[in-house]
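JOB MANIFEST
job_type = single_chain_structure
chain_count = 1
residues = 87
[input]
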Amino acid sequence: MEAVEKLIRETDHFFRVHPRVKDNNSFYAYPHLMLSNPWMYREFNKLTMDDVVVAYHYVVESACLGLADSKLVRDVRQRTDYRIETR
């Protein structure tokens, strides 16, 4: 978990220091965040990291997958939610 927290904090810090990289809206660069569709949510995507990010919730689930009526079914056995502060 320490390595995950470090990765998230360092990536968050990078995008705060280099906002032009965030402006490209490349969600591949974010290991912890899926950006909103840049064509549908232009105003939201204009916000800075300081405007929207205070902390992250990193969710880990242990789940069994199965099929029911030809559809994938998730049976979550355990869920842990870690809050990772950015400041």
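[summary]
The beta strands are 55-68, 71-85.
The helical segments are 2-17, 19-23, 42-45, 49-52.
exit_status = 0
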